[in-house]
User: What shape does this take?
Amino acid sequence: LDSLLQEIRDDRQRESPNQIEMSKYCTVQPQTKGSSEVTIMPNIKVFSGNSHPDLAKKICARLGINHANVVAQKFANGETNVEIRESVRGEDVYIVQSGCGEVNDNLMELLIMINACKIASAERVTAVIPVYPYSRQDKKDKSRAPISAKLVANMLSVAGADHIITMDLHASQIQGFFDIPVDNLYAEPAVVKWIKENIPEWKTAIVVSPDAGGAKRVTSIADRLNIDFALIHKERKIANEVASMVLVGDAKGKVAILIDDMADTCGTIVQAAQKLVEDGATKIYAILTHGIFSGEAIARINNSSFEAVVVTNTIPQDKNMMDCSKIQVIDVSMMFAEAVRRTHNGESVSYLFENVPY
Assistant: This one.
């Protein structure tokens, strides 16, 4: 018996160094059913460009890792210079860069960062692009029109990207422009959660699409909330200017919730709000995934009849929130962080299509 006990003690001592070594890389997350899941996060680097460093910091904080060290700046003649200031050899690299602000400069910065990591022997380079640049130029809708979204896809692939993570593409078919994996996350679960928590009358509300192209998105949200939906048919004479609108549906005496994937100059959603007021809507909310808000957008929102204009933080909104009290923000950093974690660990990301991670 004594010799058996001694053998057990020796086995435990031999195992303990490995257990201590593994503890550096493991975190234990208790599950609801009493079990525990070990999440391993070695060999991962998360870099950020200059477009949205705050989102990258939130993603790193959620993952419990340090933000990787990179400096991106411009030479005197305007050329972009990138310095990766730590080793990425054999690492799983994620580069967070949103297609907002100075879009062309930020896109070039992303391409250079991808290439710099790739030729520095990174195992895999994933571009986390919350807002895909040039996503509205996704088809040849008139003679000699470019398909710039396809061109951007080619540039990302040639630069060396192995994987793309984005959110609410303007047209989901853009995924087909790539020959590498693309995970198109949806803001829909976070939007549904916000509606239930912030609109008291949501059970009798109506969800409205400001154009026919967003009908699928709106019907999906309406089905999840089990409420009615409507859409607005619009006619345009020239780009960014809406000529006329017709509401297909009944908004009289109801709270109207306008849903769209992005708002740029906000001419469409402001005119849609006016049309809903004319048709008898009591309150109007706008929920948009990407709040670009260029030109006179903020002034139009301030002068509109919206109760609130809700956007996600795929684009920095600090200045816009200071200029307009109606703008509210849904944080989606946890969705990107969870997508990064699941991708790194080789897990499925389909859970994020229907649920908000906590």
